[in-house]
């Protein structure tokens, strides 16, 4: 009899508990219900999409973020809800790029957008069938170890390059610093694209009569010591498009302001942090161009194997007004001030 009574009490408690849970769910706010409905609607849209694009972005960085945004906008402008875009960030880890790419391959995405050189290299190693578009990649031949390169990679790879014309950068240095002699060229030895930029611009600068000396650092730990040496031995410092430099502009700024040595940079982001002037592209526009290429591929209008690497649609002379004023660098009228 006692066992029956205990069992009855337990059953009653279970029923009451279920009832309480049901009542709790039914008394949820309308906002929660709306959010749930919105999420379900978004998921249904993704499930109904005809195409899926996987975006592997190397790191959260102003230029790379803008390129991804431009890419997404271009694809959506052209194809709307026909495309689902999945963005994953590798947090500056090349091994994580490989993991992300492998997940895209396993999920059989229709196209991979690789934002940054290590992301492109991981994508190239991960698949030779899924179309791959790179962006914010400076040198495709170097990144992909191409022995012969005529502007078209071929196979399943194409994309856009973020390098600004190095001959025009050299012309700007000559325009701003005609009387200086020694150019210290600063870059991270781990950035293979930075090395190729340095080699090319040094040829132009030396042809103009400058003496170029390379100053390389391996990572942020030895950057300060290298910059200090470069600033001591140079009249002007040049640094190309370099992600490691871009992440440590504060160190360069403090040293170069103290020694009164101006820095000419290969990108707007670096110039905003520590430079006086740059010839720069708009990363959003570069990503948008890449998105247009993606839409052409998915719509069957272009064959990726014959698509040449595209450059940014335009370049602009810009300057950092604070740094120029502090270092007494005179800027021509056709330069545009960088907005901070």
Automatic annotation (TrEMBL):
Q: Does the keyword Hydrolase apply?
A: no
List the SUPFAM superfamilies.
Periplasmic binding protein-like I
Keyword Signal belongs to the record: yes
Extract the Gene3D superfamilies matched here: 3.40.50.2300
Q: Which PROSITE patterns does this entry report, sorted A to Z?
A: PROKAR_LIPOPROTEIN
Q: Where is the signal peptide?
A: 1-20
Q: What is this protein called?
A: ABC transporter substrate-binding protein
């Amino acid at each position: 009899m006692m066992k029956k009574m205990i069992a009855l009490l337990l059953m009653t408690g279970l029923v009451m508990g279920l009832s309480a849970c049901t009542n709790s769910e039914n008394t949820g706010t309308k906002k929660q219900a709306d959010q749930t409905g919105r999420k379900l609607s978004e998921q249904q849209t993704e499930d109904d999409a005809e195409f899926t694009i996987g975006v592997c972005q190397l790191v959260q960085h102003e230029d790379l973020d803008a390129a991804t945004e431009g890419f997404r906008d271009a694809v959506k402008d052209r194809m709307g809800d026909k495309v689902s875009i999945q963005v994953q960030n590798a947090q500056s880890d090349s091994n994580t790029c490989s993991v992300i790419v492998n997940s895209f391959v396993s999920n059989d995405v229709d196209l991979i957008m690789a934002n940054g050189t290590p992301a492109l290299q991981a994508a190239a190693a991960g698949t030779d069938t899924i179309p791959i578009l790179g962006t914010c990649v400076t040198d495709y031949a170097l990144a992909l170890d191409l022995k012969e390169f005529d502007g078209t990679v071929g196979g399943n790879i194409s994309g856009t390059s973020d390098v600004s014309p190095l001959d025009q950068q050299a012309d700007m240095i000559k325009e701003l610093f005609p009387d200086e002699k020694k150019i210290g060229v600063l870059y991270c030895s781990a950035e293979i694209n930075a090395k190729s930029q340095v080699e090319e611009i040094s040829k132009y600068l030396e042809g103009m009569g400058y003496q170029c000396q390379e100053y390389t650092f391996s990572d942020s730990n030895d950057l300060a010591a290298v910059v200090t040496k470069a600033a001591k031995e140079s009249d002007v410092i040049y640094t190309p498009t370099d992600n490691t430099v871009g992440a440590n502009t504060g160190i360069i700024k403090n040293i170069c302001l103290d020694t009164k040595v101006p820095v000419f940079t290969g990108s707007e982001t670096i110039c905003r942090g520590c430079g006086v002037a740059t010839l720069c592209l708009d990363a959003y526009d570069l990503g948008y161009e890449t998105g247009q290429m993606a839409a052409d591929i998915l719509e069957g209008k272009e064959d990726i194997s014959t698509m040449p690497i595209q450059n940014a649609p335009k370049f602009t002379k810009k300057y950092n007004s604070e740094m120029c004023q502090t270092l007494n660098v005179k800027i021509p009228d056709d330069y545009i001030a960088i907005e901070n």
